Amino acid sequence: MSPSPLETVELIIKLTQQMSLYLVLAYLLTKTPVLRPMVDLAVHLPHKLILYVTFSIFCILGTYFGEQTQGAIANTRAMGAILSGLLGGPVTGFLVGLTGGLHRYSLGGFTDLACTISTTVEGLFAGLMHLRLRRSFQLEQLFNPFRVFAVAAVAEVMQMVIILLIARPFADAWALVQTIAIPMILVNSLGAALFMSMIRDQRTMAETLSSTHSAKALKIAERTVGILASGFNQQSTAKIARIIFEETHVSAVAITDTEKLLAFIGTGDDHHKPGTPISSALTMEAIEQNRVVFADGVQREYQCSLSRHCQLGSSLIVPLNGDNGVIGTVKLYEKKQRLFLHLNQTLGEGIARVLSNQILHGRYLEQKSLLTQAELKLLQAQISPHFLFNALNTLAAITRRSPDKARPLILDLAAFLRANLKRGTGEISLKEELEHIRTYLTIEQARFGDRLSVEISVPEALHDARLPTFTLQPLVENAIKHGTSTILEPGKIRIWAKPTASELVLTVEDNAGAFPEHPKESEGLGLNIVHRRIQGMYGPEFGLHVECEPGEYTRIQVRLPRRSE
Amino acid sequence: MSLKTLIIDDELLARDEMASLLEAHEDIKIVGEAANAIEGMALINQLQPDLVFVDIQMPKITGIEMLAMLDSDRMPYMVFVTAYDEHAISAFENNAFDYLLKPVAPERLAKTLNRVRQAEQPRDLTPLMESVLTHLPCVSGKTLKIVPCDEVEYAFSDLSGVHIATRSGTFHTHLTLKTLEQRSPLMRCHRQYLVSPDSIAEIELQEGGGGEIHTRSGQAIAVSRRYLKAIKQQFGFQ
Predict the structure, then answer these.
(1) B89 and chain A: CB distance < 8 Å anywhere?
(2) Is the pLDDT of residue B53 over 70?
(3) What is the dihedral of CA A253, A256, A262, A268, to 10 degrees?
(4) What interhelical angle do A170-209 and A145-166 show, nearest 10?
(5) Which residues of A touch B20 (CB under 8 A)?
(6) CATH 3.40.50.2300 region(s) of chain B?
(7) Which of A180, A248, A392, B238 lies at 20 to 30 Å from A96 by C-alpha?
């Protein structure tokens, strides 16, 4: 006796009602963190446990809500088994199917055994589908409602076949299948598809949520400002790792350069030791290919390369870029049994961008200061040999000629050398700088005699003005070395100061006019350093300005902000 | 036998010091001092010293540049003096030339003088010389003038010495025609004339094999037969 179309429609409606209740429950579930393993796909045991419990309950409820039909139960039990298999794999699917099946078995009826077996088979089948998609790296397809519909439909057809094969008497089974086949195949498939589309929406929402990760990255940026200015080393990265750890709530944070681990904080710090070489192939991959590597533990296996007992189960590795390509990585880890992952590719990339920028800035500052220090040393060293030996030769002559004049000259030379040695890279008063060039010029005037005359006119009111060390002296030295000493006529050097409300302009002028249009390295070096130091200290509107009228004069202006102690 | 000695240094005290140090040596007779290379060359030509102490760092023309401007046939012993010049010192050492470092130690000076007396110092100074002069020291009245070689049209000698002619005038120089011929782009065209090939506008050939060069500024210079061929070849004439 085949069922009338009316009966079939009636059954479909009843089952749909049941399914709706089911979906309402599912919807509520998506609002709790319990859904996270479904959204992220369960991999680790606790996740699978959650799946098992949840979907077993669904299975049992499906049986309870079922419709008594011809000594059997038309139901939506299959949805639970199929979904658990799809989300958790064959083992989870099998166990959920078995649990739901055994529960059904306990209720008796002529299809009890057939239903038990078929539900278990359905769970296993869905699980195998999961495995297949996973092996072909199409896991995303799991969330495609059409595919889920197809899987569920096939599973339900299988159930019908099993009922026909196992349930006896066959005539009853055949009658039953005629009644329930269409409604159950249709409703279970539709239900599974709808459920999955709900999960898919949830995933999309989770992705959207990741924009909040940008806010996290910003927070990290704010807290890490300036730390990397001291360089990309173990001390600075340890601080950075601590901040990322606190802000992201991941299980562990590591920072590496291209060769070794610089900082590690969180789970596993007992065997992840800063200073040790990078051993993870994933990290090397991120460095070599300059791309994000996300071993989420699902699509891509993650196993700690140091210890088999390491609790970390997934890792996001993001390369850090300096001015010449990759200089290291940031790694975020989650533990294997962690229920709710904080790992997220967007966040990782955001953090990496923030850090890369800071590293670049830090590098810049570091190099700038190193350069200035090195150059200053050079400047200090640069003046010595030629000046010093000529000075000593002059002293040798004067000692012979008029010993009483030699003594003050020796004192001036000593004062000059001492001041040169003890000067730092900071600022001094104009008075100190004038004294420094006075000692220098006294010696040079003794050396050149009437071939060098000097005129300094700086009002006393300006004596407390501040200027960088080694500002005027290199200019005066330059005026002699590349100016007055190269002409046959008597040389003349003039130094004067011109203040405005906000600026102080100091000028050093010689009468040689021999400033080369394209200074050779050795000639331009001293002035170049002076210029760059001033700009570095006060800004680009300050610095040196050279005017040269060949054969007439070279005039070098020093523009400084007007500041006094 | 005493050595006629000249000191060239732009620093008065440095010359004094050197003179004082040389007083200890009886065979050294200081015949003159010069405050730059141009005066120095004039004195070398005029006094024909045996020994010259020359500072390297001097205005306009350095001691080494001066070397190339001297007549190599009458080259005195040259001793270079410097306070600090790594570049020059390595050149001296590579060519076994003697040099002194300021301030000069008396013992070191004595050693150098011994080498000079025994003629151990190499006499051929060409390794130190720049092969081509780029500027020529000249005198115009009381002014010392440096003329870039590419401004020179021709050079000539007369009873009063050697002169360099440029478009802007003629200047006296202490360089000999021979030195100019060897070390500048000027070419010999007559016993008493050198000409810059760049300034030749035309060559008028005359009967008897000689000729006359007209320079770009309209000057006429005699070309004698023996030099005409080389000049014609310079421009590709057969």
Answers:
(1) no
(2) yes
(3) 40
(4) 160
(5) 397, 400
(6) 3-129
(7) A180
**Å between A516 CA and nearest CA of chain B:** 14
- Going A306 to A312 to A313 to A314, the CA torsion angle's sign is negative
Q: Which amino acid is at A210?
A: S
Parts of chain B belonging to CATH 2.40.50.1020: 136-234
Tell whether B17 lies on the interface with A, counting CB pairs under 8 A: yes
Confidence of residue A409 (pLDDT cuts 50, 70, 90): very high
Place of tokens 């045991």: A45
CB A182 within 8 A of CB A7: no
The whole-angstrom separation of Cα A413 and Cα B227 is 60
Q: What is the pLDDT of residues A121-179, one digit of tens each?
A: 999 999 998 888 888 878 778 888 898 999 999 998 998 899 888 888 888 888 888 88
Q: Which CATH architecture has domain B136-234?
A: Beta Barrel (2.40)
Closest residue in B to A392 (Cα–Cα): B103
Residue A219, pLDDT score: 78
Nearest to A545 by CA among A535, A534, A553, A555: A555
**3-state SS assignment for residue B117:** helix
Domain B3-129 sits in which CATH superfamily? Response regulator (3.40.50.2300)
**Are A449 and B13 within 8 A, CB to CB?**
yes
Counting Cβ atoms within 10 Å, is residue B86 exposed (0-12), middle (13-18) or buried (19+)? Answer: exposed
Closest Cα in chain B, distance from residue A399 (Å): 10
User: Rounded to the nearest 5 degrees, what angle is found at the Cα of B68, between the Cα atoms of B62 and B74?
Assistant: 120
pLDDT, one tens digit per residue, over B160-172 is 889 999 988 899 9
- State the pLDDT confidence band at B69, using cuts at 50, 70 and 90: confident
Interface predicted TM-score of the whole assembly (ipTM), two decimals? 0.78
Q: How open is the CA angle A300-A305-A307, to the nearest 5 degrees?
A: 120
Mutation target among B10, B11, B20, B139 for the A interface, most CBs of A within 10 A? B11
At A256 the three-state DSSP class reads strand
Using the Cβ of A403 and the Cβ atoms of chain B, whether some distance falls under 8 Å is answered with no
* Residues in B 118-147 with any Cβ partner in A closer than 8 A: 144
Selection from A80, A86, A114, A76 nearest residue A99 by Cα:
A80
Query: Mean of the pLDDT values across residues B24-46?
Result: 93
Distance CA B219, CA A227 (A): 77
Q: Pull the structure tokens for residue B115.
A: 């080498």
User: How far is Cα of residue A466 from the mean position of the Cα atoms in its chain?
Assistant: 42
DSSP assignment of B18-46? HHHHHTT-TTEEEEEEESSHHHHHHHHHH
pLDDT in tens, A458-515: 999 999 999 988 889 889 998 998 899 999 889 999 999 999 888 999 999 999 988 8
Give how far Cα B15 sits from Cα of A18, B8, B147, Å.
Answer: 118, 7, 27
Please give the torsion angle defined by the CA atoms of residues B153, B158, B162 and B164, in that order, rounded to the nearest 10 degrees: -20
